[in-house]
Specification:
single chain, 131 residues, mainly alpha, Methane Monooxygenase Hydroxylase, Chain G, domain 1, 6 helices, HD domain-containing protein
């Protein structure tokens, strides 16, 4: 949704200008790839944490391979300069645990990070066995 359309929609829900600006600021700060901006508000930090938690763990692994498959990426390439679904873990996913803002998100991220590390160990063990 375009920013202006979103503002208009929020006005129809009787949000104030301050609330609309807060919501737009939160939306702008969520993305991991748009920069390392830390949201100004607790609400923004919670939304950013939720977005990042969604990218890791079992669901994050599934999303990574689904996206990679849709884009025709290889599962894994031992040449680290080539793009692969597994490389996305080191490029982004394994970094997310350390950038959580809230205590509860850090606890969830710790569990999901450990799951991903175990998954990667198993994946590489099986991959290397099959080569």
């Amino acid at each position: 949704m375009v920013k202006e359309e979103l503002q208009q929609f929020l006005r129809t829900l009787s949000f104030t200008s301050i609330e609309i600006n807060t919501i737009l600021s939160i939306i702008d700060s969520v993305s991991f790839t748009k920069g390392k901006r830390i949201p100004d508000t607790l609400e923004g930090k919670i939304v950013q944490d939720a977005d990042r938690l969604d990218a890791i763990g079992a669901i994050g692994i599934a999303r990574t391979f689904a996206y990679g498959g849709a884009k025709g990426q290889r599962l894994y390439d031992s040449n680290e300069t080539n793009n692969s679904s597994l490389r996305h873990f080191s490029d982004k996913l394994l970094k997310l645990r350390d950038v959580m803002h809230t205590r509860s998100a850090r606890g969830i991220a710790e569990q999901r990070h450990a799951f991903m590390e175990n998954y990667l160990k198993q994946f590489l063990s099986e991959w290397n066995f099959s080569e």
